[in-house]
Each structure stands twice: as structure tokens, then as C-alpha cells.
């Protein structure tokens, strides 16, 4: 397998300073701001975006608990009917305002044909509007990706793609139930570049029990060698109800949090040396390439969401869609919005949420009404003493990103009366 | 009012689970005291905790009327008593109010340790005992053997033993007649000044203290001016009554009768169990002997998880003591746990029950420290100081010796397990005493042992080694000097009194290591490395480190599902609320509980 581990040379090396292209994001209002800049983060509060959920997958990965249907499950091949449904749902958006970012996630959006994707983008364009220079991004599995497909997506208007590479180690890929090879990932990446995608991201998963330090080092080296504009890395998590969780309950080894911390720290160092900036717990970008859609959702920007199990946030209301494909379609087809529920946040709750979610950003979060009481609380003091958080330039910053949930729980101790 | 000759007062006594309460059910049922509709199993186990655990915790007195074969109607006052060793004080109090006892033995088990202990208590109290073999319906029952054993204990013959099934009702009629025929009527003097024994009391939020009394001499009527002799309290008898078990008011209680008395007094300290009630004018000056105060066997610190609840805990303990006179407590301060109380208990079950009642009935969240027996420290100065908590132990330099409480232990075991029982007792520093055979198959072993070796996990080990067949009883037997040391547990460098203990020097290392290991498992990782050490004085005997927590974050915001994420964090936060800050370290409740159950 030694050939698997060689790093191929790509024709398209990313220059350190990115050229300003039609689709690149340097043309927009965040100009030269580095990915972890507070100015950029605060700008993102005013952006609005749209999420489109495509639930179809070739098969269900053992660790996945997203709203997906595998192709051998009921409705798993009904993509045409689903796209029709999505278009109806987009038409139901009550209060449209042009979006700065669109993200197609899943599931596996690349299981749709380019013309179906075009119909959806078209529907958003006509109902909601797409701002000039907007980020239009798609999550892709390497095995679905060809240069012809990539060119078609460019045609449709996509200017960002993130590949679910997960790992370059075949042992780990097999453990994750992924069908692509590490070669597939490199070929797909190459094809994207050839088709003109500059803004290409790689998704990795670290801390699979089958992974070793050595295998992770190689994965990181090969990812960096591809010179992506952006990289996301997620710790393998055992979610209830998945095949992985059943296996772990039956005694299979689960991910080890200390190993995961080691992997994360290694990755963070390697990426920093390669010129990336970490701007969120799990996301790194080269200057100019932080993901707009991500930033806007973390900054509590407004976003619409379409498709099964999708969540949106508009006008202080969070709503979520029905997760089941058949029920979703039945609702849509009878002309009813396929909502499963919604939540209207009060002033204190939404402020607290802004603060808690904002903690994930490397730029830190503006204290608002909750930051003061928090950092002066007992728990806040302990976190400051232990150098887990800090106050920098008037913002609360988490210095140990791997402890962000711990910090967020401490924020929950702050009550409305304290503010 | 019934003539004393038509009254029979008796307690039902037995080893735990031998069927006392079920037998009481049948007696109530057969005499029509309770309607079929109101009947339920162990109807006298009225407390929620008794029903949940299926055991009797508190003695319960009721009156029934029995129409004897002779055609005469008798008044029975029966007291159902608990069988667990922790509550033997309840049994002794109950026996004080009776002339007779029904001693029950499970036909499938035979005589066990509390059968003997309770039988001796009844005999020493001069009570007439009716031996009963119960559960004869069980396939595993061996009524002949059980009857032989009982006869051996009481020095009678097996044919005096009445065989019943409290489940099916077989033999109940015979028992009812035997109560009339064999138990003596009360002997008091109807014309003498009133003397009534307060044998129990409880607190009712609306009525104040309700006393259960046994009229020994004379009689009492409502609105009489009465005096509680020990406290000198003079009050009116507002209400008199009996329990059938539903309460029923009466105008008068006569010689030999049992009933309740309400005076409207709300201060429990003024009405003590064991006190004698007489009339204010023309009363007696000869009080009844009363009771010895029960001696707590183990002490433990109780601390509210939330420091603000200290006053509420005090009130709760005060109230609980109204119904449980064996409870003693005093305020205590712990460096690690803040303000709380050192509470004395009759045993671990008693401790568990008190704690559960405090948490449930008074909505408190508590941390209990490792229980300890009461030691005595002999100082160089010749002075002796009590040590109820490891923290009370004076500095080694001023210590001449430490004395620990000893107990007389009785174990009943099938003969085949004698070897393994002896082995266990030896490990626990027991000194062998007498051994006798109840029958060729079962032996009665006597030991003298340190209380500390027996009160915690000894019984579990005994049960395991004897496949559940052995039973155990013990009673205090003075103090004796031993080679004892205090093992301190340090968390992040800070001694945590909740985990410290006084143990025999030979066991200090094992204890320290086990405790440190257990805490390492139970305390979650913190923001920094936390060393856990066990030490005798300044000498560290064991050490472990809880490594700092490095990862506590989930990857994604679930595709924008922030609501779900927040709810997850809130749930996790709830779990954290049950943590107690000890210095800079968050310690979960389970760690304190586990310390109580440490196997060494
Ligand atoms: N088969 C059978 N079971 C019985 C009989 N008497 C009691 N039991 C069962 O034995 C168990 C214990 O009965 P209790 O009446 O609670 O015993 P107890 O002596 O009051 O127990 P404590 O008060 O805890 O000491 C229960 O499960 C009863 O149902 C009997 O005659 N036959
Ligand atoms: S491809 Fe992605 S969305 Fe589909 S099952 Fe696998 S992990 Fe889940
Ligand atoms: Mg009982």
C-alpha cells in the first residue's frame, strides 16, 4: 500500500496571496480581514444565508446520525420528487431577503444531477435573491466527483466545494464505512481545481479508534499537500442510535478523548505552520477563505433552511423541519410547510445563545449583557485562572478550544437576574 | 373500659422478615378489625419507606377485640415490631409495654440471631412467650426442626409451639386462643394513682406531640390535669384514643390499656419516650423505670450540597427527631464541606433511612461523610476525649492511646460454614468466645469484636461466605485500646475530612490505596491535574493523579440545530449540579456515597 501514501503533485498550487476572482470572496466587504478577525465576525452577524438539505446517501455511514436516507431505504432514490418538494418549500419562504451564502449539505448533495441543483439555485434566486459575490457551496463525496460534474456545477454558479475526505488512511476509511479511497479524494480535489474551483475545502475526521498517531500525521501531510483553501476537522463522536454506538455498547473500542486531543493539537500546529488560521473550534482557513455560511450561522445571522430535518433562524424564531422524508414530502405536496416545531427566544435566551455559540469563534465573542456577569462569576473566575478563557480587546475568548462546551455549560449558570 | 382480666398486651417479635407484620395482618383480619376493602399486605407498615423496602422500621401498636371460644370478649393490644438489628431499641421499648410476646420463626429458616436476641430480651423482661413457627405453607418449610430449635431456646417442648401460616391463615385461630390462655392479664392496681408509660411518640403537624401510653396503674380521662414526671410538665389531657388501626377517640383509658394521648404540646423535649404520666394532683411519686437512651453506633457528617440549606437541614433534623428519639446530632464544620451536622445512628440501615427521609420529606440534597464509630482518645494529660469524627482525633504527640468500642457478637450459621465464618471473624480482629449447637446442623458462635469491624460491610461478607444462611446480632461491650491511626485523604493537596478515617494500623495501607483508587474512578477530570493522596500524618502511603480534562466539545452545531445543542448542554449542566466543590475540585455525590461502601 506504500503507493497510497505518496503525496501526488498537483498542477494547481495555491498562491500564498489569492487572486481576486469572480467567485473568490476577497471582492466582498470583508476585504483583508484575517479569518479570526472580530471585525469579520461582527460583519457576519448581518449576513443572511440559506441551507439546503439533500438527505440522499449511497449508504449510511456507521457513525452518522444526520437526517439521511440510504439508496436501499424507502424513498432513497426519489431525488426528482424531493427536488420538486424543495422548490415548493423555497416558494413558501415568507420574508425573503437576498442571501450572502448558500450551503448545500446533507446527506450527499452530489447525488443530485447538476440540472436538479440548478433548479434549486434558480428557485432561491427567484424567490429569495442571491447577493452579488455570494458564496455558493456544496458538500461533496469524492467518489461522486468527476471533472465534467465539476464543470457543470461551476456553470450552475457554485464557487465553493468541501470534500468529505475524512482520512487518507484506508484502514480508517474502512472503519468509517466510507467507500472512496484516498486516491479518489486526491483525484476529486484535482478535478475541482481543473474546473476552476479555487475555494476548495477538505473535511477530516480524527480520533477513529483504528487511527494511529502515525496515520494521522500522514493524513494531515497529504491534506496540506493538496493546498486547500479551507479545512474542517471533526472528532469522531459516538451518537446515540448509530451503528457505531451499538458497537461500542457491545464492547468495541470507542474514541479516546485524550488521543483526540493529541490529534487536534497536532493538526492545529501543522495547519498554522502551513499558513492557515483557525477561526472556529473545528475550522481553519487561509486568509480570505473562511466559510461565510459557517460564520453567519455562528454569529446568529439570519438563515433560511430547506429540506428534511433542516433548521432555520429568522426574526428571532428558530424552526425545524420534519426529519422523515415521506412525511416531509406528504406535507409539502399538500401545500403545508413541513415544520416539526419552532422556538421563539426571549431577549435573555437569545443573548445567552449568541454568547454561547460565539464562544466557538477564535475571534472571541462580544460580551453583551451576559459576558460581564459570566467572567465575574465563580465559574468564570475558575476558567480565567485555569487559562481556559481570557478577555482580549473587550471580547471573551476561549483559549482552549477543546473545552468550549465546558465553558458554554458554565455560561448556563448565569441567570437573567445576574444581567 | 375493659376489666384488666380481659386484656392481653403483647408484642410480635422475630428475626427480620420472618413474617411479623403479615401475622399481624391475619390477627387484624380474623378479629374483624379491618374491613376487607381496607386490607393490604403488612397493613401496619404505614410509612412509605416501610412499604417500599418491605420492612418494618417503627413499632406500631393497635387494639383489636377478640371474641374467644369461651364466649368472652377480650381486648388485645398488639405491637408489631421491626426485626432489623438497627431497630432492636424499638423492640425493647415495645416489650416494656406488654406482658407477653409472640415469638415468630420462619419454618424454612429456623432460629436466627435476632430470634435469640429478641427472645432473651422478652425473657429477661419477665414476659410470657408464645413460640410460633410461621410460613409452614412454604415447600422448603421444616416446621419440626424450627419447633425443636425454638423449644431449645425457650427451654420448653416442641408441642408448645404453634404452627401457622400468616399467608394462608392456618393456625391463626389456635394462636388467638393461646394468647387468651397463655398470656397473663395486666397486673396493675386500678385504685392506685395513675402511672402510664410513654412507650412511643410521634409528631403531628396539627396536633403536636402524640404519645403512645400504656396505663400501668389507675386510669386517665380526657381533660384530666396530668404531669410528665421527668420534665415536670403539667398539662391537660386534651384527647385520648386508641388505634384500630384507624384512630378512635375514647373518654378514658383504664389500667392495663394501651392508647394515645394528645396534650397540644409541640415541644418534643417536654415529652420523652420512657417518661411516666401521672395526675398533677394526687399523683404518684414513684416513676416507672423508663428506658435507657439508645446509644448511637455510628456517626456520620451530613452536609447540604448547597451551603445555603444549612438552616433547613437543622429544622429537618429537629422535626425528624420528634419521630425518632434515637437520632442525635450536633453542628459540625468541615473544611471541605462547610457547615453541617455530625449525626449519630443506630446502624447503617438507620443512617440510610434517615438520610433518605431528610432528602425526600424535606427536599434536601445531602452529602454524607464516611461513617465512623465513636472512639475515645486518652491524652498524655490523663484526660479522655470523645472522638466522633476522624477530625476530632487530637494530635499524635499528645495521644497516649486510642480506645475503640467493642461488641458482643452472636452469629448463627449452618455447621458446614463454621470454618469460613471463623476465618472471616479472625480477619476482623474477633476473639472467639463460646460455640453451641442449636441442632446438629446449626451452630451459634459468640465473639468479641471491635464495632468498627462489624458495623460496615461485615454482614455482606458473612452472607456471601455462608450463601446467605448466617445471621448476626451484636450489642455494645465496652471500650478497649487498639493500635489505631488516622488515614487522611488529600485531594489536590487539601485534606478532605469526608474521606478520612480511623483504622487499625495493619489496615491503613489497604484502606488508603482502595480509597484513592476509588476516588480516581469517581471524580471526573478537572481543568488541571488533581493528585489524590492517602497519608498517615505526613507520610504518604498511596497516590494517584486525575489527569486534566483536555477535550470537552462536540464537533458541529448539528447543522444549525442550536436548540438541541443547548438542551444537551443544559442536561449535562444538571448532572454537574450534583457536584460539591471541595477546594477547587468538583466532586460528585457518588464519590461520597462510594466512600461509605468501600470494600477493604
Ligand atoms: N409463604 C409465606 N410467606 C410469608 C408468610 N408470612 C410472611 N411471608 C412473607 O415473608 C415476607 C416478610 O414478611 P413480613 O411480614 O414483612 O416480615 P416481618 O417479620 O414483618 O419483617 P420485618 O418487619 O422487616 O422484620 C413477605 O414477603 C411476606 O409475604 C407465610 O406464612 N407464608
Ligand atoms: S455520507 Fe455523510 S451524510 Fe451520508 S451517511 Fe455518510 S456521513 Fe452521513
Ligand atoms: Mg414487619
Structure report:
The complex is a heterodimer of chains A (419) and B (600). Chain A is of the alpha/beta class. Helix content of chain A is 37%, strand content 21%. In chain A, a hairpin with a 2-residue loop joins strand 12 (311-314) and strand 13. In chain A, helix 3 crosses helix 12, helix 4 (114-127) packs parallel to helix 5 and helix 8 runs parallel beside helix 10 (257-273). The longest helix of chain A is centred in the middle third of the chain and has 17 residues, at 257-273. Mean pLDDT of chain A is 88; it is low at 1-29. Chain B is α+β, with helices and mostly antiparallel strands. Chain B folds into five domains: 4-182, 3-Layer(aba) Sandwich (Rossmann fold), CATH 3.40.50; 195-279, Beta Barrel (Elongation Factor Tu (Ef-tu), domain 3), CATH 2.40.30; 298-368, Alpha-Beta Plaits; 376-482, Alpha-Beta Plaits (2-Layer Sandwich); 485-597, Elongation factor 4, C-terminal domain (Alpha-Beta Plaits, 2-Layer Sandwich), CATH 3.30.70.2570. Chains A and B meet through helix 10, strand 12, helix 13 and helix 16 of A and helix 13 of B. The structure holds guanosine-5'-triphosphate, iron/sulfur cluster and magnesium ion.
Note the topology.
The complex is a heterodimer of chains A (419) and B (600).
Chain A: H1 2-5, H2 38-44, E1 48-54, E2 56-57, E3 69-70, H3 79-91, E4 99-106, H4 114-127, E5 130-140, H5 147-156, E6 160-166, H6 170-175, H7 182-194, E7 199-206, H8 213-225, E8 230-235, H9 243-249, H10 257-273, E9 277-280, E10 283-285, H11 292-298, E11 302-306, E12 311-314, E13 317-321, H12 325-333, E14 339-344, H13 347-358, H14 371-376, H15 378-385, E15 389-392, E16 395-398, H16 404-411
Helix pairs in contact in A: 3-4, 3-12, 4-5, 8-10
Chain B: E1 7-14, H1 20-30, H2 48-53, E2 60-67, E3 73-80, H3 88-96, E4 100-106, H4 113-124, E5 128-134, H5 143-154, E6 162-163, H6 172-182, E7 195-204, E8 208-217, E9 220-221, E10 225-228, E11 233-236, E12 239-243, E13 247-250, E14 252-253, E15 258-262, E16 276-279, E17 298-304, H7 310-323, E18 328-334, E19 338-345, H8 348-361, E20 366-368, E21 375-379, E22 384-387, E23 399-414, H9 418-427, E24 431-439, E25 442-450, H10 451-454, H11 458-465, E26 471-482, E27 484-491, E28 494-495, E29 501-504, H12 505-522, E30 530-536, E31 539-546, H13 562-577, E32 579-582, E33 585-588, H14 589-596
Parallel strand pairs in B: 1-3, 1-4, 4-5, 5-6
Antiparallel strand pairs in B: 2-3, 7-8, 7-16, 8-15, 9-14, 10-11, 10-16, 12-13, 12-15, 17-19, 17-20, 18-19, 21-22, 21-23, 23-25, 23-26, 24-25, 27-28, 27-29, 27-30, 30-31, 32-33
Helix pairs in contact in B: 12-14
Bound molecules: guanosine-5'-triphosphate, iron/sulfur cluster and magnesium ion.
Magnesium ion is lined by residues 20-21, 42, 45, 56, 80 of chain B.
Amino acid at each position: 500500500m506504500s503507493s497510497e501514501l505518496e503525496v501526488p503533485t498537483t498542477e494547481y498550487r495555491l498562491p500564498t496571496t489569492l487572486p481576486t476572482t469572480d467567485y473568490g470572496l476577497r471582492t466582498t466587504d470583508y476585504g483583508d480581514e484575517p479569518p479570526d478577525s472580530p471585525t469579520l465576525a461582527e460583519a457576519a452577524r448581518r449576513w443572511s444565508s440559506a441551507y439546503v438539505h439533500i438527505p440522499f446517501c449511497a449508504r449510511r455511514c456507521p457513525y452518522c446520525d444526520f437526517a439521511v436516507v440510504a439508496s436501499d431505504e424507502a424513498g432513497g432514490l426519489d431525488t426528482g420528487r424531493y427536488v420538486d418538494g424543495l422548490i415548493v418549500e423555497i416558494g413558501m419562504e415568507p420574508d425573503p431577503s437576498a442571501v450572502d451564502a448558500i450551503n448545500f449539505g446533507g446527506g450527499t448533495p452530489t447525488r443530485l444531477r447538476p440540472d436538479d441543483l440548478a433548479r434549486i439555485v434558480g428557485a432561491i434566486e427567484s424567490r429569495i435573491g442571491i447577493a452579488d459575490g455570494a458564496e455558493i457551496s456544496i458538500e461533496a463525496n469524492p467518489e461522486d466527483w468527476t471533472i465534467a460534474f465539476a464543470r457543470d456545477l461551476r456553470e450552475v454558479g457554485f464557487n465553493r466545494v468541501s470534500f468529505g475526505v475524512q482520512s487518507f488512511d484506508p484502514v480508517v476509511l474502512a472503519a468509517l464505512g466510507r467507500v472512496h479511497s484516498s486516491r479518489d479524494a486526491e483525484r476529486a480535489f484535482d478535478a475541482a481545481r481543473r474546473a476552476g474551483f479555487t475555494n476548495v475545502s477538505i473535511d477530516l475526521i480524527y480520533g477513529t479508534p483504528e487511527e494511529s498517531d502515525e496515520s494521522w500525521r500522514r493524513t494531515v501531510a497529504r491534506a496540506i499537500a493538496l493546498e486547500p483553501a479551507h479545512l474542517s476537522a471533526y472528532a469522531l463522536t459516538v451518537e446515540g442510535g448509530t451503528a457505531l454506538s451499538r458497537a461500542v455498547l457491545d464492547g468495541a473500542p470507542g474514541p479516546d478523548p485524550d488521543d483526540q486531543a493529541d490529534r487536534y493539537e497536532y493538526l492545529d500546529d501543522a495547519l498554522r505552520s502551513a499558513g492557515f488560521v483557525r477561526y472556529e473550534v473545528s475550522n481553519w482557513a487561509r486568509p480570505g477563505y473562511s466559510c461565510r455560511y459557517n460564520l453567519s450561522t455562528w454569529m446568529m445571522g439570519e438563515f433560511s433552511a430547506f429540506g428534511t430535518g433542516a433548521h432555520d433562524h429568522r426574526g428571532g424564531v428558530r424552526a425545524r423541519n420534519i426529519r422523515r422524508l415521506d412525511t416531509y414530502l406528504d406535507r409539502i405536496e399538500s401545500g403545508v410547510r413541513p415544520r416539526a416545531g419552532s422556538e421563539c427566544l426571549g431577549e435573555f435566551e437569545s443573548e445567552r445563545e449568541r454568547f454561547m455559540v460565539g464562544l466557538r469563534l477564535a475571534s472571541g465573542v462580544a460580551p453583551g449583557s451576559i459576558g460581564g456577569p459570566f467572567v465575574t462569576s465563580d465559574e468564570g473566575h475558575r476558567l480565567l485562572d485555569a487559562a481556559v478563557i481570557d478577555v482580549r480587546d473587550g471580547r471573551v475568548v476561549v483559549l482552549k478550544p477543546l473545552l468550549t462546551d465546558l465553558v458554554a455549560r458554565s455560561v448556563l449558570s448565569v441567570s437573567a437576574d445576574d444581567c | 373500659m375493659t376489666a384488666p382480666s380481659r386484656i392481653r398486651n403483647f408484642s410480635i417479635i422475630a428475626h427480620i422478615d420472618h413474617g411479623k407484620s403479615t401475622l399481624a395482618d391475619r390477627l387484624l383480619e380474623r378479629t374483624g378489625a379491618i374491613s376487607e376493602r381496607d386490607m393490604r399486605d403488612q397493613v401496619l407498615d404505614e410509612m412509605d419507606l416501610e412499604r417500599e423496602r418491605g420492612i418494618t422500621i417503627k413499632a406500631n401498636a393497635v387494639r383489636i377485640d377478640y371474641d374467644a371460644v369461651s364466649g368472652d370478649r377480650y381486648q388485645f393490644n398488639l405491637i408489631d415490631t421491626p426485626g432489623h438489628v438497627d431497630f432492636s431499641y424499638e423492640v425493647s421499648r415495645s416489650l416494656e409495654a406488654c406482658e407477653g410476646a409472640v415469638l415468630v420463626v420462619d419454618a424454612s429458616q429456623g432460629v436466627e440471631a435476632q430470634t435469640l436476641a429478641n427472645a432473651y430480651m422478652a425473657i429477661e423482661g419477665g414476659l410470657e412467650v408464645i413460640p410460633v413457627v410461621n410460613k409452614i405453607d412454604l415447600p422448603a418449610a421444616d416446621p419440626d426442626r424450627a419447633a425443636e430449635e425454638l423449644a431449645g431456646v425457650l427451654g420448653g417442648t416442641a408441642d408448645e409451639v404453634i404452627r401457622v401460616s400468616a399467608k394462608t391463615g392456618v393456625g391463626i385461630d389456635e394462636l388467638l386462643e393461646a394468647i387468651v390462655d397463655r398470656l397473663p392479664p395486666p397486673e396493675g392496681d386500678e385504685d392506685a394513682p395513675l402511672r402510664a408509660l410513654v412507650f412511643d411518640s410521634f409528631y403531628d403537624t396539627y396536633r403536636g406531640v402524640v404519645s403512645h401510653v400504656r396505663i400501668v396503674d389507675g386510669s386517665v380521662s380526657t381533660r384530666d390535669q396530668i404531669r410528665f414526671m421527668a420534665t415536670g410538665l403539667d398539662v391537660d389531657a386534651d384527647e385520648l384514643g386508641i388505634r384500630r388501626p384507624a384512630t378512635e377517640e375514647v373518654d378514658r383509658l383504664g389500667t392495663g390499656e394501651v392508647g394515645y394521648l394528645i396534650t397540644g404540646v409541640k415541644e418534643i423535649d417536654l415529652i420523652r419516650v420512657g417518661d411516666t404520666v401521672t395526675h398533677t394532683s394526687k399523683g404518684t411519686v414513684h416513676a416507672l423505670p423508663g428506658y435507657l437512651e439508645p446509644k448511637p453506633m455510628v456517626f456520620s457528617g451530613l452536609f447540604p450540597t448547597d451551603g445555603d440549606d444549612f438552616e433547613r437541614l437543622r429544622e429537618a433534623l429537629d422535626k425528624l427527631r420528634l419521630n425518632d428519639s434515637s437520632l442525635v446530632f450536633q453542628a459540625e464544620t468541615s473544611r471541605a464541606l462547610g457547615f453541617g451536622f455530625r449525626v449519630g445512628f443506630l446502624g447503617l440501615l438507620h443512617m440510610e433511612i434517615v438520610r433518605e427521609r431528610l432528602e425526600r420529606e424535606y427536599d434536601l440534597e445531602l452529602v454524607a461523610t464516611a461513617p465512623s464509630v465513636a472512639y475515645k482518645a486518652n491524652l498524655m494529660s490523663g484526660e479522655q476525649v470523645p472522638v466522633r469524627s476522624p477530625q476530632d482525633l487530637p494530635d499524635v504527640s499528645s495521644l497516649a492511646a486510642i480506645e475503640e468500642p467493642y461488641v458482643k457478637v452472636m452469629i448463627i450459621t449452618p455447621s458446614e460454614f463454621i470454618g469460613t465464618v471463623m476465618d472471616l471473624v479472625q480477619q476482623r480482629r474477633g476473639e472467639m468466645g463460646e460455640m453451641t449447637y442449636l441442632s446438629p446442623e446449626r451452630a451459634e458462635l459468640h465473639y468479641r469484636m471491635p464495632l468498627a469491624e462489624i458495623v460496615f460491610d461485615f454482614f455482606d461478607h458473612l452472607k456471601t461466605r455462608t450463601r446467605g444462611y448466617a445471621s448476626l446480632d451484636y450489642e455494645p461491650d465496652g471500650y478497649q485500646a487498639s493500635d489505631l491511626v488516622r488515614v487522611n485523604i488529600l485531594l489536590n493537596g487539601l485534606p478532605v475530612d469526608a474521606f478520612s478515617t480511623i483504622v487499625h494500623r495493619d489496615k491503613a495501607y489497604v484502606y488508603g490505596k482502595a480509597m484513592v483508587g476509588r476516588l480516581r474512578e469517581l471524580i471526573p477530570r478537572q481543568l488541571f491535574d488533581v493528585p489524590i493522596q492517602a497519608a498517615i500524618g505526613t507520610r504518604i502511603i498511596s497516590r494517584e493523579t486525575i489527569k486534566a480534562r483536555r477535550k470537552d466539545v462536540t464537533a458541529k452545531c448539528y447543522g444549525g440545530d442550536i436548540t438541541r445543542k443547548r438542551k444537551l448542554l443544559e442536561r449535562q449542566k444538571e448532572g454537574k449540579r450534583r457536584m460539591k466543590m471541595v477546594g477547587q475540585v468538583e466532586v460528585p455525590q457518588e464519590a461520597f456515597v462510594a466512600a461509605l461502601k468501600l470494600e477493604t
